[in-house]
């Protein structure tokens, strides 16, 4: 017996903020969740699995119209022709109370009840599948105590959408503990909700979050896909993770301290990209680049904002590797300014450096000063929510302060005597 375990497909999940970015492959990103789901169905047929288990959040929320439901319905119908059963639990995004539109039931697809945990036994396969759906988004109680006992003589699979004991990147839903899952006597716990793949427990029972099927933004990096599990003589015999994402997100960090010019930055970027992608031409790669270190590049960017991103974009014109789109370039660079010498100056430059040093030395003072300076600004657009002042950490405030200082010093530095280096340029 062989089964496929996937979760958090978020079919037709909306994208935010990409329309504002020139050259963004919006249509390809919008269709990525559908393409990944088609790849999952293809895989199930090709590998001749007996069951497909979907552990919650098949949908991202209520359908805008019937097209989302019809697409999923049609894809699942392909499995019926091959005698493949499908078991589904609803999660917080597609809870019973969330999905208002309904399509006819499919005989080979079982959606577990949201009122009580159920067991479905497929005697011909020697497997028992247990599960319970979310009745609404906010399920705060532990559902595990209500799950049925393991069926003797069967390979028992428990399906649950849960945050376990909690995750900093995900809301707390149906929280439970590993020891309670183990006490069910099941052989495999097919979990959903956490978007990063995680093998919580290797065996007796094996407990797995497969991660989401398709990364949707720069915080969902790396391979995304599903688990294929083989059972022989009632025992777990083999497990395999299969990547199915059609768009893969990456964060590429470039140390810039030794770099002295734009050409060196571009060369380092292309070399690092070649290592990161290792010739994988089977999908689109979306890369967020982080520039770090003390470098003269910081001052160059201050003089010409956007220079570094433009340099990396230009570098892609000479790239002959896998398809790449740069989602964003984030600068965490600092200037090699001789601060001690600059702070002794009696002029405006010295005053700026002294002010920055005072603000950067105290988190509370910096935050209060910055919020006061921002009072007159309008609210940020929704897609820039991660830059909201009330969400910034002290380190992020200091990074913004350093950027502001560099811009001011770039304006003041034109008339500096050669004795005081500003941003590494004498």
Summarize the helices and strands and which ones pair or pack.
Elements: E1 2-6, H1 26-30, H2 32-46, E2 51-55, H3 66-80, E3 85-89, E4 109-111, E5 118-122, E6 127-131, E7 155-161, H4 178-182, E8 188-192, E9 198-201, E10 206-209, E11 225-232, E12 235-243, E13 247-255, H5 262-277, E14 284-294, H6 297-303, H7 307-315, E15 324-334, H8 339-343, H9 348-360, H10 363-374, H11 394-412
Helix pairs in contact: 2-3, 5-7, 6-11, 9-11
Key traits:
alpha/beta; Purple Acid Phosphatase, chain A, domain 2; 2 domains; six-stranded mixed sheet; 15 strands; 28% helix; elongated
Overall spatial form: elongated
**Total number of distinct structural domains:** 2
Low-pLDDT segments: 414-426
* Tally of strands: 15
Helix residue percentage: 25-40%
Average pLDDT, all residues? 89
Radius of gyration: 26 Å
Strand content: 15-25%
Gap between N and C termini:
71 Å
Task: Figure out the total of helices.
Answer: 11
The side-by-side strand order for the widest beta sheet comes to 4-3-2-1-11-12
CATH class of the largest domain: Alpha Beta
* Class by alpha and beta content: alpha/beta
- What is the second-level CATH architecture of the largest domain? 4-Layer Sandwich
Order of helices and strands: EHHEHEEEEEHEEEEEEHEHHEHHHH
CATH superfamily of the largest domain: Metallo-dependent phosphatases
Task: Quote the CATH topology of the largest domain.
Answer: Purple Acid Phosphatase, chain A, domain 2
Largest sheet: 6 strands, mixed
Organism: Sphaerotilus montanus
GO molecular function: exonuclease activity
Pfam family, one: Metallophos
Domain Calcineurin-like phosphoesterase: 1-196
């Amino acid at each position: 017996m062989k089964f496929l375990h996937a979760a958090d497909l978020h079919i037709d999940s909306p994208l935010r903020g990409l329309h504002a970015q020139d050259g963004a492959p919006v249509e390809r990103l919008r269709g990525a969740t559908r393409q990944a789901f088609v790849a999952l169905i293809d895989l199930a047929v090709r590998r001749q699995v007996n069951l497909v288990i979907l552990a919650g959040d098949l949908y991202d929320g209520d359908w805008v119209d019937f097209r989302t439901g019809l697409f999923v319905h049609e894809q699942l119908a392909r499995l019926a022709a091959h005698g493949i059963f499908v078991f589904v639990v609803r999660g917080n995004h597609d809870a019973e109370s969330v999905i208002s539109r309904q399509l006819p039931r499919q005989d080979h697809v079982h959606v577990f009840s949201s009122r009580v945990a159920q067991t479905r036994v497929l005697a011909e396969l020697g497997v028992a599948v247990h599960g319970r759906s979310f009745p609404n988004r906010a399920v705060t109680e532990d559902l595990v105590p209500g799950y049925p006992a393991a069926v003797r003589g069967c390979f028992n699979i428990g399906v649950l959408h849960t945050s376990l004991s909690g995750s900093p990147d995900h809301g707390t839903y149906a929280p439970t503990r590993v020891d309670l899952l183990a006490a069910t006597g099941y052989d495999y716990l097919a979990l959903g909700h956490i978007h990063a793949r995680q093998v919580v427990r290797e065996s007796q029972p094996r407990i797995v979050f497969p991660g989401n099927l398709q990364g949707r933004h720069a915080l969902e990096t790396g391979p995304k896909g599903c688990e294929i599990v083989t059972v022989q003589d009632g025992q777990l015999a083999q497990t395999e993770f299969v990547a199915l994402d059609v768009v893969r997100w990456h964060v590429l960090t470039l140390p810039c301290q030794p770099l002295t010019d734009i050409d060196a930055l571009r060369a380092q970027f292309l070399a690092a990209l070649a290592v990161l992608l290792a010739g994988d031409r089977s999908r689109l790669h979306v890369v967020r680049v982080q520039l770090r270190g003390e470098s003269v590049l910081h001052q160059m960017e201050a003089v010409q904002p956007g220079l570094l991103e433009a340099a990396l974009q230009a570098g892609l014109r000479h790239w002959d590797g896998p398809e790449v789109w740069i989602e964003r370039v984030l600068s965490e660079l600092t200037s090699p300014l001789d601060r001690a010498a600059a702070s002794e100056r009696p002029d405006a430059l010295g005053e700026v450096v002294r002010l920055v040093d005072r603000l950067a030395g105290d988190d509370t003072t910096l935050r209060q000063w910055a919020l006061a300076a921002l009072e007159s600004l309008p609210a940020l657009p929704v897609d820039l929510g991660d830059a909201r002042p009330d969400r910034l950490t002290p380190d992020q405030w200091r990074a913004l302060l350093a950027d502001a200082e560099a811009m001011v010093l770039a304006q003041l530095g034109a008339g500096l005597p050669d004795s005081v280096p500003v941003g590494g340029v004498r």
